[in-house]
Amino acid sequence: MIAPGKTGREFAWPPNVVEFASEQKVSPSLDPLLMATYRLFPTALAVNVYVETDPEIADLKRIVFEVRISHQDVADFAGAQRGWIEAMCEICPEPITCTFVLFLNTV
């Protein structure tokens, strides 16, 4: 898939993300959520997507959308988080929304 807003840059889903998304029945949400992430964070330096296991809750895994972005490009971190959650809720059916999380990694 060509990453939206990043003309010419390919985005390849990591195999473990594809496998976990399939197990959780959220595969159709991956591409739209990636596109929304690039739309909401057009100045992102990088977007990494990976599966993370919660260190405190046994068997809890989530798909993390890590957005690496300049601190100056995010004026309102809470608002940015809310915007991404709103987009996720529009894309994903309600019971599966907790499968995805956003991590804003500022530099």
CATH C-level label:
Alpha Beta
For the biggest sheet, the summary is: 3 strands, mixed
CATH topology: Alpha-Beta Plaits
- Describe the strand arrangement of the main beta sheet, using strand numbers: 1-2-3
Radius of gyration computed on alpha carbons: 14 Å
Number of domains: 1
**From N to C, what is the helix and strand string?**
HHEEHE
Summary keywords:
107 residues, three-stranded mixed β-sheet, Alpha-Beta Plaits
Task: Please provide a written account of the structure.
The structure is a single chain. The protein has 107 residues and is α+β, with helices and mostly antiparallel strands. It has one domain (15-106): Alpha-Beta Plaits, CATH 3.30.70. It contains 3 helices and 3 strands. It has helices at 15-23, 27-40, 77-91; strands spanning 46-53, 61-69, 100-106. A 3-stranded mixed beta sheet has the order 1-2-3. The chain starts with 14 loop residues before the first helix and ends with a strand.
Compact overview of the structure:
By secondary structure, the chain is of the alpha+beta class. 36% of the residues lie in helices and 22% in strands. A 3-stranded mixed beta sheet has the order 1-2-3.
